[in-house]
Specification:
alpha/beta, nine-stranded mixed beta sheet, eight-stranded parallel beta barrel, 12 helices, binds ligand LLP
Amino acid sequence: MTDGEAAPGAPEFAYRAGEFHAEEVALSRIAAAVGTPFYCYSSAAIERRYRRFAAAFADRPVRICYAVKANSNLAVIRLLARLGAGADVVSEGELRRALAAGVPPDRIVFSGVGKSDAEIAFALEAGVHQINIESEPELSAVSAVASALGKTATLAIRVNPDVDAHTHAKIATGRKENKFGIDIAQAPGAFRRAAQLPGLAVAGVALHIGSQLTDLGPFELAYRRAVELMRALARDGIALGRLDLGGGLGIRYRHERPPAIEDYAAMVKQVTDGLGAELEFEPGRWMVGNAGVLVARTLYVKDGVARRFLIQDAAMNDLVRPALYEAWHEIVPVREPAAGAERRPIDVVGPVCETGDTFAAQRPLPPIAAGELIALLSAGAYGAAMSSSYNTRLMVPEVLVRGGEFAVIRPRPSFAELLSQDRMPDWLAER
Ligand code: LLP
């Protein structure tokens, strides 16, 4: 069984009466109100994904900690929190976002390969559910900070199972060569040390082998190794009640056929059968990736000598995934093309001064004229969250749709706001 999405994107995004809609709202209506470019998310799509994930594990004690890094808008986090989601955070900033959105601290897991003492202290004061440790020096640091505060840090140790996740090299995290986790062969020593250090309560094993995995095999291999480790530790007198299986389940951007969550769940239940541990998950992309689009307006159609270009008002600073990972995002015209409209290869680019500012090269698209809107699909995860104001472009606004209504959940800033972030040193002040 595959994920069940018939095409890239989500069914909540579709043409209705010749216009691309998010649920019941025409994207052109949002463009008229908000301007372009903008991100648009579907509440129904996010809810549908969360409920499906939760249903797949309804017969087990599980904790679903949404990986906030995928889309960290407070409204998106709150929507998921109201459905029962916890949060997986990797910085004080993300922890503050999760708390501000209303995620109870005891549903928050603090991950990340380099936490500062200040971040560790903040997490302990907040009372997070668990801190995931990624190195021996970090064990010592958490022990020291917890002892100084008179607190006990409940933790899991993230192991590196040395498994090839078969994904883009920049988002594979489970090989020996990667900076993440403690090598699984060295993990028993780390657990023994942790049991002796003051201020620590060791609760579990954690792992996360990469992102956008489209195959169950690597997950299964890694999970089997983690379960073996837990059984070996139990024989050594270190009984652990939690297993954090990370995130990483892929979505459909193009032709991928990622496994269905129900099959993933069946595999997890089989591998962890009889373990008696609470399972924790950190899905990011799977929850929100196909629940968002980036809408841009075509500024120019440029006929180059060798290529034809569709120049958009969105750019790599708004959606960096194509430039960074050669990622494919499906592109659709917001006005439905005529049936049988001829598709011609064209380069879809932004205005930023880099050749890497290309959303798609030689993409077969129906005719799109200057002034027309396009939507880049599957942009709900790692889109707005990775955006910047490079080229002093205003950060792209975000809009959340629910049924027939929409709300701006992050407005476009003004140029005055953007420029006012800089400060002039005294010696450059005007005389
Ligand atoms: N847990 C940990 C410890 C992680 O490092 C990550 C993602 C997740 C959970 C969530 O993974 P997901 O379910 O979203 O695959 N910017 C890249 C993806 C980076 C993923 C980083 N870690 C992209 O746009 O493809």
